[in-house]
Design goal:
It is a single chain. The chain is mainly alpha-helical. The protein is built from five helices and three strands; from the N terminus they run ααααββαβ. The chain has a three-stranded mixed β-sheet with strand order 2-1-3, with helices on both faces. Bound molecules: zinc ion (ZN).
């Protein structure tokens, strides 16, 4: 009977190890948090790059318009100072054109200068976003590698525990004891058998009566905790 209880106690420690490993394996998420961060960063990068491209296009457009105004103005000025036009009305019209072009030019100059700053800012933002994506990709690779190693390690531990359990379980010949254990384990959160340590049930910590403690030590019959119902077991090595 003592051997049965001792084997059952070892079986329980294996079952608890197996539960723990399975829970740990289930919690491996494929670095989900980093994956999500990376997706967000990639969206931000895409956004930053679109933004940059739009400002760059706007700047190019301004520069082209400035060039065209410049050419027009040069043409008018050439005509004005060439002496070819003498009609005062026509001269005045040319002067008006030049004045209008100057005003357009000055407005566009201001806008172009602003755009230089804006493009520079957008370029910095895109650069920072690219860097963030790069860092997260590195971080994700490392996390996935670590998870994969952890998974291998846990699976090896699990296989060892399962193998040990397979050799141990048949040594528990008292099938009533075994099924009582299984039932208690389901009902009482993972534990079906508890040691008596310092006169207390190891699982629910209740103080047992000297009578119960003695019966457990004598080991002539199965004794159950009066409080939690678990199978009680006394390991003389704990004394
Ligand atoms: Zn108890």
């Amino acid at each position: 009977m003592k051997e049965q209880l001792s084997a059952l106690y070892e079986l329980q420690s294996l079952d608890m190890t197996i539960d723990l490993i399975n829970a740990r394996l289930r919690s491996l998420s494929g670095a989900k948090t980093i994956q999500e961060e990376l997706e967000k960063s990639r969206r931000e990068l895409e956004d930053a790059e679109k933004n940059l491209a739009a400002y760059e296009a706007e700047l190019t457009d301004c520069e082209l318009r400035l060039k065209s105004i410049d050419t027009k103005r040069a043409d008018f000025e050439k005509r004005l100072y060439s002496g070819a036009v003498s009609n005062p009305k026509e001269l005045s019209a040319i002067q008006k054109e030049i004045a209008m072009l100057k005003s357009q030019q000055s407005q566009l100059d201001g806008k172009t200068l602003e755009l230089y700053d804006t493009v520079e800012e957008a370029r910095k933002r895109a650069h920072a976003a690219r860097e963030a994506v790069r860092q997260l990709e590195t971080k994700l690779d490392a996390a996935l590698q670590q998870e994969s190693e952890e998974k291998t390690r846990l699976q090896q531990k699990l296989a060892a525990a399962v193998a040990r359990r397979a050799t141990l379980a048949p040594t528990i010949t008292d099938k009533t004891l075994l099924s009582r254990y299984e039932l208690l384990r389901k009902k009482a959160g993972g534990r079906g058998i508890a040691k008596v340590i310092d006169g207390k049930c190891e699982a629910c910590k209740i103080s047992l009566t000297p009578f119960v403690t003695r019966k457990v030590k004598e080991c002539k019959e199965y004794v159950f905790c009066e409080s939690c119902g678990r199978i009680l077991y006394f390991d003389s090595g704990d004394e």
